[in-house]
Amino acid sequence: MSAVTNVARRRFVKSSAAAAGSLVIGFHVPAALKPAFAQANTTAAPVPPELNAWVVIQPDDRVIVRIARSEMGQGTLTGLAQMVCEELECDWSKVSTEYPTPGQQLARRRVWGSFGTGGSRGIRESQDYVRKGGAAARIVLLQAAADEWKVPVSECTVEKGVITHGPSKRRTTYGKVAAAAAKIPAPAGDTIKLKDPKDWKLIGKRIARLDTIEKTNGKQVYGMDLKLPNMLHAAVKACPVFGGKLKSYDEAEILKRPGVKKVIRIDDTAVAVVADTWWRAKTALDAMKIEWDEGPNAKASSEAFAKVLKAGLDATDVNVGNRVGDAPAAIASAARKIEAVYSYPHQNHACMETMNATVLWTPDKCEAWVPTQNGEAAHAALAEAAGLPPAKCEVYKLHLGGGFGRRGKTDYVTQATRIARQMPGVPVKMVWSREEDMAQGRFHPITACKLTAALDDKGEITGLHMRIAGQSILAGLAPQRMVNGADPVVFQGLNPSGPETPIGYTFPNLLIDHAMRNPHVPPGFWRGVNLNQNAIYLECFLDEVAHATKQDPLALRRKLMAKHPKHLAVLNAVAERVGYDKPAPAGVFRGLAQTAGFGAYVAACAEVSVSKDGVLKIHRIVAATDCGNAVNPQQIEAQVEGSFVYGLAAALYQECTVKDGRIEQTNFGDYPCLKMADMPKVETVILTSGGFWGGVGEPTIAVAAPAVLNAIFAATGKRIRDLPLKNHSLKA
Amino acid sequence: MPKLNVNGKTLEYQADEGTPLLWVLREQLGLTGTKYGCGIAQCGACTVHVDGVPMRACVMPAAAIKPTQKITTIEGLSPDASHPIQRAWQALDVPQCGFCQSGMIMAAAALVKAKPNPTDKDIDEAMTNICRCGTYNRVRTAIHAAAREMAAQKKGAKPKKVAALGKEVLDITHVETKSGGAA
Prior knowledge:
The complex is a heterodimer. Chain A is built from 19 helices and 27 strands. Chain A has three domains: 11-215, Aldehyde oxidase/xanthine dehydrogenase, molybdopterin binding domain (Aldehyde Oxidoreductase, domain 4); 223-296 and 355-431, 2-Layer Sandwich (Aldehyde Oxidoreductase, domain 4), CATH 3.30.365; 302-347 and 443-727, Aldehyde Oxidoreductase, domain 4 (2-Layer Sandwich). In chain A, helix 11 links the parallel strand 16 (365-370) and strand 17. Chain B is α+β, with helices and mostly antiparallel strands. Chain B has two domains: 3-76, Ubiquitin-like (UB roll) (Roll); 84-170, Orthogonal Bundle (DNA polymerase, domain 1). Helices cover 36% and strands 13% of the residues of chain B. Chain B has six helices and six strands. Chain B has a five-stranded mixed beta sheet, with helices on one face. The N and C termini of chain B lie far apart (73 Å). At the A-B interface, helix 8, helix 17, helix 18 and strand 27 of A face helix 1, helix 2, helix 3, helix 4 and helix 5 of B. Strand 27 of chain A pairs parallel with strand 6 (175-178) of chain B, so a sheet runs across the interface.
């Protein structure tokens, strides 16, 4: 086994502290606020001159910005650093970042706000306090220089970390005054005035990411790549039928295999093989005979779920998400009705890096190295599984090889800790095989939707009923967030108002309700969450209504969107960019979609062709996003492009079906992803209407599928109402 | 002990019969830049070069490779991340989560070596790696940029700085920023 290690065990303490070198810094984090074991392990290295929780400045002017949220590809690391440094006025070329640990967060009473990285919240929910963190640091740095020169601080200015006293032209740098600045009490948050957006220098700029180089030379260490001294490797299998239990396994032959150290029962749910390499652990586990008690769900199937959902479409036990007037009455008295039923399957996140965690357990402390979207939740799960108080546990976050919502859940942390607890004093890296990752997902919820439109004799919509039947994420994942037994998140994108998820249309009569039907498959927040299927249902159905009433789909939408100017603006931006007023190229057909969610407004137009043999080609996507303020436009483009990959892979190829209680798909062979040859051109229009901060990582996914499905209808006359598309023929 | 020639060095390793090259690289030789994504040659995260040809290391038994065959991993593509493909990747900020990118870069480097001026169709055919973040369009643009840069250098041009390369290519990515609706 290689004895090489590749990650500082105490990334945080080491990274800030080591660079302080031999200079004596007159500022220390009070010892009481540091986790006991971190303190014990940081010998004499001076604690860095922290200006506040967000900013550390080294004597050589290097700036370390602390990033509370997790980097999983979405660029939040760079975006948040831009926000802090916008107010800090430091030299951007000297900026690096680090993650504070969940243990420090706990000890310092959540000084960093939320670590949670989901719901496209990284920027939009922390923009105020991270900018204030940068501003507070700037204020004490300027004060320290003024104090040293004995001049009024109002006569001092700063540019790129160089402070100048105007009248005397004296200059100093942030690095030189950082130690003194660290002793000055921080200004109160409510006294800090943030910059006027017109003065921004970093926010809004196409700045290069801070984490690119190591992602091009193999040096980026993901959880799966971690190497610690004396580390062992674990492969694991949990009961493939959700709710089932481990009955027995035959370890005698397995323990004779080379390198195998131990076979470990993880409660009643799973079994792991620990070996000196993961390949040995995995092949030994594959060879082991395991018997499961498959429990009450042993015969569950997707067909059976579908029947339950179908019955839910006419059920009376519902929760109402949006009600205007009396839609059922409008429908009952309508001159004409249009009705359609749609559905959306279970899907796996399929992060490129499978679930993994490395845990070192001893009777009096426990440490874990985890790619997680929620460091605090991982820390809590670690402490619980370790049987130790949280103050004796620590989590070191690593960049994620994809998250998409899957890594907000902590099941894999618990599992790795259960394994490590049976190997005291030895770090154990648990890695899931792709097959295990597919079997043990936390899946996109399954729903069906019946939409009924009432039309008057002129074809105008007088009422709309949208009945959703199906799975609640909160019921399965966070029941404490249910409201009176209802899951409000189900109505994402369909709510009457609110910054998160307002519907973009006005109907004279509207009813949107939900019959909750939860199968045994565990749900998860899957990038885009419920906005994904809700946008498909509403946007495709409106397209149906437009065609049935011989209206242009854009014209119909514009009519219904008159009172929703922000929604309308992104749709109009798309129409303008795509050249909607002119016909598409010969043989090419267009489809539109718009929605709002995660605090942002999005729209898209797809241009597709379908050959006589039924081969779909997506030629071009035009997408618009209004996220209020655009922190890094080139990263917004990357997220918008990536959203089409994630959303179109789901629409074209992906479903997880259940047979005999278990997920049938096992790997990328039967769960295909979008590849280069499928990838359309994507043109991104970024609108910055200002005054708010919207999320970017997720909302656009929701318009990918409906825009393409509507274009397919325009091309073929075929209306696809259940996904994925691979289950349908588009042949003429 | 069996031997492999990896990144110009002959290295001894110990592994059970049938152990794929991927796991010898990652667990015996400490080269973790090459990734495990699927284990069935579907995703390409494990792509390395064997005598210059891109191979999926997750299904290739290490023992099937002769010590005379030259294996190149992402760590050996260039000493300082300066291969034109790597520079183009940096210029365009291609990676998002980055997990698939070692394999992407190795596949792309093999492509531009075999076809110095690849067409979009060549790229579609050669680049069958899976990226869940969805970096494909930047991958495509970066391959074209790297090919242009390599052609220019062949004619004696000095290597462009990454930032200059970035500015040149970022201009093609259809950016438009404007203010949105009122209210």
